[in-house]
Description:
Ferritin
Amino acid sequence: MNQVDTNAVLNRLAxxxxxxxxxxxxxxxxxxxxxxxxxxxxxxxxxxxHQETTDRLGAMIMENNGTVETGAxxxxxxxxxxxxxxxxxxxxxxxxxxxIATIQECVEQLRLAPMFQAVSEELLGAAxxxxxxxxxxxxxxxx
Length: 143
């Protein structure tokens, strides 16, 4: 895999983290009650990890002589302003499942770049852990 192709895949990984729903919610916080404190902390942690991942991938892209792309938030996120956290948990799970699918594609695309593939596999593990945390929040919200 040449540098251009590798950087394109790394940028795809960066954008999926930089423009995640969890990250979006740091700009447009959901409606939450006092009982949602733990859920809001979890969302903040996920968003912070996404930012750290974006920074890490950006550094890798620049070291690989590439240009970092920031991407744009999906327009559908704008329809989710001023909604409850309970509603958003369903959307967060759905978007996280999409993120996992994207990362899995990137893992495969980076098979000829083992160092970068290892990083993408690490990101896949983190994404699955985030999905598990979101499922737990959803279960807690229903209880």
